[in-house]
Design a protein that fits this description.
- Helices cover about 0% and strands about 50% of the residues.
- It has strands at about 1-5, 10, 15-25, 30-40, 45-50, 55-60, 65-70, 75-80, 90-100, 110-115, 115-120.
Length: about 120
């Protein structure tokens, strides 16, 4: 599975961004897709996931009111809509895919990773 993430950029606090991840390769329908982020000097953390087949979603508590993850089966794309951006959202955002059949949030549960897209939020 190859993952390509894009859509990051510099945005003012309170603004919005839409990150996209295009997936290609093996059958995607059995995969759990997710976004992680890594802020400077911090560990990479789980943000949100979506089951490709069912569309079921799960969010980290810190983002559930502002982030929305979705997928477009026809375009093999997973999108992360981020609203009401805060300076603490500044990070490199990574798209990831897991072969696990259960909900997975730890980084080590994910088998495939995209290259990351940088989000910078100015105050």
């Amino acid at each position: 599975v190859q993952l390509q993430a894009f859509g990051g950029g510099l945005v003012q606090a309170g603004g919005s961004l839409r990150l996209s991840c295009v997936a290609s390769g093996r059958t995607l329908s059995n995969l759990l897709m997710a976004w992680f982020r890594q802020a400077p000097g911090k560990e990479r953390e789980f943000v949100a996931s979506i089951r490709w087949s069912s569309g079921g979603t799960y969010y980290a508590d810190s983002v559930k009111d502002r982030f929305t993850i979705s997928r477009d089966n026809a375009k093999n794309t997973v999108t992360l809509q981020i609203n009401s951006l805060k300076p603490e959202d500044t990070a490199v955002y990574y798209c990831a895919a897991s072969r696990k059949l259960y909900l997975a949030t730890p980084r080590y549960e994910y088998d495939y990773w995209g290259q990351g897209t940088e989000v910078t939020v100015s105050s």
